[in-house]
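Can't paste images in this forum, so I'm doing it all in text. The chain is below; anyone willing to post the predicted structure tokens underneath?
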Amino acid sequence: MTNERRDRIETFLKGLTYLYGVMDWEQFLKIANKHISPEVTEEEVKKERYFMFEKGAGYKIYEDIIQSTLAHDEIIDDVYNHAEEYHKEYYTPTEKQIVGRANFDRFYETTEAHKQLKKYLEKITSKEKAEKHMAKLHPLFAIDGVRKGRSISSRTEPLMEYIDKNGFLDCNNMEEINEVLSLFMNAMNNTRTWANRGRSPNQLGNQIRKNRERLYEILNSI
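Text version of the structure:
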């Protein structure tokens, strides 16, 4: 395997595991082979697995799955089991979305909700610090989206700790605090999560609503 091809495949391994958290080989090959030629094979990647992992790429290759190393195995298991239990389909990303996530230490979403949050962080810190905070906030938004037996408040605990640690809620009154918290919650709800296999909570909610409306239309036509 040439260095160029190895780097190309590794970009997809990094980007897709940061999008999904964990994926099976079928999904990886399905996405990778939309963009890489000649086609990638499971055997080809496994042959290079030790060289790739030794570079500390943020993913680990197993016999049946490829998973991120950016979260504990307990979280990975919860994410995978949750997605399987609820039959969640993988989101199909663009190459730009994959390549962006390959630089996972600097990546964050750029939806309108994220732009509003970044604007607030720039106001109370600086442009440079806001960039760093957004990259650090992304995994807090995306990774810990599901933990069995945990309440919503406990699932957002790491995020709230980060907010408190950095003094983001040093406001004058409760109204300001609620406004600031809404910026963080809106960004979280518009972040593609591992639990939803690359879809944001808002995207998944909209899709469920559309499917329900379509079902009602069909039932009413009978």
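The CA atoms of residues 151 and 157 lie 10 Å apart. The mean pLDDT is 87.
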